[in-house]
Amino acid sequence: MERFYHEDQAAGVLLECDSEAEALAGAEESLRHYRRDARADGEWSPDVSGIVVGRVVPDAPDEDDRHVPTHQATETGDERAGYDYAMRPVPAPGASPGIGPG
């Protein structure tokens, strides 16, 4: 059975979950806390980008390779509409970035 994780690096949280949906729900809960603080402080903490969701690789040869990120808190919006953060997919390791319009 594939396992997933939710990590909030600044808070020292690393929770393994039974499903990707459960891990993403945990990440959304962390985002709600940062969002509340951002509204009170008038700015986002740089720590918000440390919210990550991914797959657990139990038989990884190296402990550092045990958690493979699939989603990360990413800034959305703009100055006019306002900024927010949302969980967005991260490129797979070894994937080349797409070429956008020049």
Describe this entry's structure for a reader:
The protein is an alpha+beta fold and 102 residues long. The chain has one domain. The protein has one helix spanning 20-41; strands at residues 3-8, 13-17, 51-56, 67-78, 82-89. It has a five-stranded antiparallel sheet with strand order 2-1-3-4-5, with helices on one face. A hairpin with a 3-residue loop joins strand 4 (67-78) and strand 5 (82-89). The longest helix is centred in the first third of the chain and has 22 residues, at 20-41.
Helix content: 10-25%
| Number of structural domains | 1
Structural class: alpha+beta
Tally the beta strands.
5
Oligomeric state:
single chain
Whole-Å distance between the termini?
43 Å
The shape is elongated
- Pick out the low-confidence regions: none
Strands of the widest sheet, in order across it, are 2-1-3-4-5
H and E order? EEHEEE
Number of distinct helices: 1
> Largest beta sheet, briefly?
5 strands, antiparallel
Integer-rounded radius of gyration? 15 Å
Strand content: 35-45%
Summarize model confidence as the mean pLDDT: 90
